[in-house]
Fold this sequence. Notes:
This protein is α+β, with helices and mostly antiparallel strands.
Amino acid sequence: MTEPRAAHRPSRLKTLTGTCLAWCLAASLAWPSLASAQATDDDLPISEIQAFSEVFERIKRGYVEEVDDATLLKNAMRGMLSELDPHSSYLDAEAYRNLRETTEGEFGGIGIEVGLDDGQLTVISPIDDTPAERAGLQAQDAILRIDETPTDRLSLQEAVDLMRGEPGTEIRLTVVGAGDGAPREVTLAREIIRTDSVRSDILEPGYGYLRISQFQARTGEQVEDALTELRDQGALSGIVLDLRNNPGGVLQSAVDVADAFLDRGLIVYTEGRLSDSDMRFSATQRTAAPDVPLVVLINGGSASAAEIVAGALQDQRRGVVMGTESFGKGSVQQIMPLGNGEGLKLTTALYYTPNGRSIQAQGIEPDVEVVRGRLEVADTSNLRIRESDLEGHLGDGGDRAGSSRSDRLDGDYQLGEALNLLKALNVISQRDTR
Length: 434
C-alpha cells in the first residue's frame, strides 16, 4: 500500500504537524541555553528535527494502536537520555518520588541496586538485611526475568518499577551468577526497606568495625555517632571500614564520611562542561577518628560514593584499601525537578580522586588484593593434640584478656584478613616507637 499524498491527508494530520512544529519551536528556544557551553557557531540541526517530526507523524498515523502526543513525547525524552549513558534518565512522577524515597532511606521493594551491563540487568549490590540480601543475591548476578517479564527489553527504570511494589506482595526473579551453570529462580516478598546505612561492632577488643551499606542524607552523622559508640567501649587500635557492596548515594555524605578520618587535604573534585559542575571538597579539622589505623574493604559492588571515600583515603595514605577492584562508577548525576512532579537525572560531571585519578570505568584498585572465600578445616591427618584437649587439664586461672570475638568474622575471609592486617600494622608501629 502506498503512502497517501500530502495534499490528501486528513485535517487531523494538520493538528499533528502543528504539535511537532510546536515541539520543534520549544526545542529551538531551549537550544541557546543548552549550547552556551559549546562553540558559538553551532547550528540548530534542522534536518534531524525535521526527521523527528516525520517519525512522530508516521507513528501517530500508522502505529497499530492509537498513541497520544504526551506519551510519544515522554518516550522521546526517555530515549534521548537513555542513549547518553546508563545513569541519565527521565523521571516520571513515580520514579522521581522513588528516587527521593531511596535517598531519604525508605522505600517499598526488595532492597537491591541494579544497573545495565551491556544491556543486561545486573545486580550491583544487595542492601544489607533486605529480602534480596537474605535470598543470597550477589554483585554481578544477572537478572534474566522479573516474574514473567524478560529483562532484555526493559529499560533500567522499567526494571526498577517492576521490582518495587506493595509490602507483602511476592516477586520471582530468574538470576544467574558469574560462576553458575544454570539460572535459578528466587522468590522474595517485598518489604518496606528502611535502610539504616551505618552499623558498627567490636571485632575483638580494641578493633572496631564500621559497615556503610549506602550513602544517604544522614550517613555522615551516623558514622560520627558510631565512632563515638566504638570509642566508648575502649581505646581503638584499629578500624575496618567495610564498603563492600555499597552502591553509593549522596555525594555530600561521602565527603562527610571521608572527613571523619581526615583532618586536612582534598577529598574529591568534579569536572564537567558547565562551570557549576566543577566542585572541590576538602577535609576539615573537625575529625572524629584522625589517627586510628584504618583498613577499607571494597569489592566489585562498591560504587560511586563508596569509591570516592576509598579513593580519598587511599590517595591521602590514611588507610590501606583491601579486597577486589571496585565497580568504576565515577560520574556525577544532578537531579533536576521539572516543575510538574517529574524530574531529570542528568550526568553532568566526573569524579576525580585527590591525586587526579578518574574513577569512571576504572574503579579503585586495592592496595592489598584479597578475593572472597571461606576458611575450611585442614586435613585431620596432621592433627596435633594440645594441652587444652586433654581430659582434666588445668584451667588458665580466669578469662584471658582479648578472648572476645565477633561472630562477623566467622566465614568472612576478607574481614578476617583486614583484622590481621590491622594487628600487623600495630606491631610494626610499636617496634618503630621503641
